[in-house]
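Sample 3 of the quickstart, ligand S-adenosyl-L-homocysteine:
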Amino acid sequence: MSCETQLGIGFTSDRTRQRFLDRLVAQGIVEPAVLDAFKRIPRHYFVPDPALHSRAYDDIPLPIGHHQTVSQPYIVGLMTEMALRGASRLGRVLEIGTGSGYQTAVLSCLADKVYTIERIGELLDSARERLLTLGISNVEYRHGDGYLGWPGRGPYDVILLTSAPPQIPFRLLQQLAVKGRLLGPVGTKQQQRLVVADRTSDGFKESLGEAVRFVPMLKEIV
Ligand code: SAH
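Result:
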């Protein structure tokens, strides 16, 4: 496993950690590899405001600056499980929207390699620093527009969006390997559904999942 080093940046207490894991299980996150990744990655370390560290193991999104949020743990777990589909590893993953790097870190435990793109340079720099401090080395970072993907590193087994475009960008589908899966929120600011698109040998198969609420996927790089 690639995210073993923790440098003593532990959870606030064993009790907090156990409650956090118990709640994820109660919500239906049952895949041992996913729970193990949650066990290893200290979420409070991804929340820049120390005043909010005590809320880091609640099932809520929290602000990370630049009007963005670290995703809710349940949603991180759900998307990671949907990406795994019962397999034990994820292969090559493209993540659009690094944000704090929390989901990136969870994915890094399960993936051979994670390629992550963020449009806000300062968020990307902080995320990179956090993951390197945690000893996570199987991640490549790119400051750019996720709508374009990262064709030079594809095709990907998994493409995961952490912000919502109005529809699935075709350019991203093109970077998916055959048998690969793209998943993420799609819709308007008010109304979004989780969408799964599987690439088959002769096209794509899409299915709609539950209603979700993510920040919108934007175009300009800042
Ligand atoms: N999974 C992240 C969630 C971050 S919120 C975490 O756990 O912290 C979604 C992120 O997507 C934001 O950081 C936002 O800046 C980024 N984003 C939005 N549109 C983007 C685009 N076109 N390309 C890359 N990143 C984008």
